[in-house]
Design a protein that fits this description.
With 307 residues, this protein is α/β, with parallel strands linked by helices. The protein has twelve helices and ten strands. The strands form two sheets. Strands 3-2-1-4-5 form a five-stranded mixed sheet. A five-stranded mixed sheet has the order 8-7-6-9-10, sandwiched between helices. A hairpin with a 7-residue loop joins strand 2 and strand 3. Helix 6 packs across helix 9. The relative contact order is 0.17.
Length: 307
């Protein structure tokens, strides 16, 4: 029996799965984030090797029993020297298993649309989109850097929510639910203590800034229209990536399927409502993901290593 390993690496968490040729995970594992920008290349390789070893041991098999592995990694494809280095280390760490490495957005597309034509948008800690068209044409958009990009992501919404709190606090915007939620959650006795809290407890940690988005979500649910507007703005930013990819590659169908993954979409209709509206205005159809991103990695592993 052939076994395949699928790994979806992310800035906040990494998901690993094992399957046979049916592509259905029968053993899974969660691990911490695997962005080399955060923990370094060598640490990423150790994390993936160690957690895969545990995954295989739980299933009662070894690396030698596996036909192939697909690994989706954040930032892969952005630096040729680092790409080459991390590929060399992973091939050695996973030997004798054959390894195929892609940017994590590609495993999202593979799972969400089951490797069919279309566009996949990821909005988690960061944001990025990937499209696949006729004859394997592909294009990527977004995923630049949180300092000046990642528009529409949890990190981006988190920063916008911080800005909105400051405006609600000093009168530039009417006080809404976000104001009370942030004061309570951050333990702020005076509004201007917020600056110290953000500098010390949030700004140095990418995942905590992204998690701040949850306060905006709660505020929007409690009727804060300014907080709700942050998600409408995020939807427009995500749709911009869809529009850009439509211009870059050719699709066989006039109506292009668009799917999605990532933490921002856990807010449900708060983001999906305006995002669907934006996508349909571009002549696309928003589709619920068929499979998970980790299953997408398994599908790609089977695509490249089935014989």
């Amino acid at each position: 029996m052939k076994y395949f390993i699928g790994i979806d690496g992310g800035g906040t968490k990494t998901e690993l799965a094992l399957s046979t040729e049916d592509g259905i995970p029968f053993e899974t594992r969660m691990a911490k984030g695997s962005s080399y920008q955060s923990i370094g290349v060598e640490a990423v390789v150790r994390l993936l090797r160690e957690n895969t070893k545990i995954l295989l041991e739980r299933a009662g098999i070894t690396f030698a029993d596996c036909a192939g592995c697909c690994i989706g990694l954040p930032c892969y494809g952005e630096n040729p020297e680092i790409d080459s280095y991390i590929t060399t280390l992973l091939e050695k760490a996973f030997a004798p298993v054959k390894v195929h490495i892609v940017n994590d957005v590609e495993v999202g597309w593979a799972g969400s649309l089951e490797c069919r034509e279309g566009i996949h948008v990821v909005s988690g800690t960061g944001s990025i989109a990937f499209g696949s068209g006729i004859a394997g044409q592909s294009a990527r958009c977004g995923g630049w850097d949180e300092f000046y990009g990642d528009e529409g992501s949890c990190y981006w919404v988190g920063r916008q929510a911080m800005s909105l709190f400051s405006k609600e606090a000093d009168g530039r915007a009417p006080k809404g639910a976000l104001y009370d939620i942030v004061r309570k959650e951050c333990g702020i006795l005076r509004d201007f203590y917020f600056t110290h809290v953000i500098r010390e407890s949030y700004a140095p940690y990418r995942e905590k800034v992204a998690a701040f988005q949850n306060y905006a979500c709660r505020a929007a649910g409690a009727g804060d229209e300014a907080a709700r507007a942050l998600y409408e703005a995020a939807a427009k930013e995500l749709a911009c990536m869809v529009k850009a990819i439509r211009k870059q590659i050719i699709f066989s169908e006039e109506i292009v399927d668009v799917s999605y993954s990532g933490g921002i979409f856990k807010t449900g209709d708060l983001i999906l409502g305006p995002f669907r509206k934006e996508v349909e205005a571009l002549g696309c159809s928003l589709k619920k993901p068929c499979r998970t991103t980790t299953e997408g990695a398994l599908l790609l592993a089977m695509k490249y290593f089935s014989t």
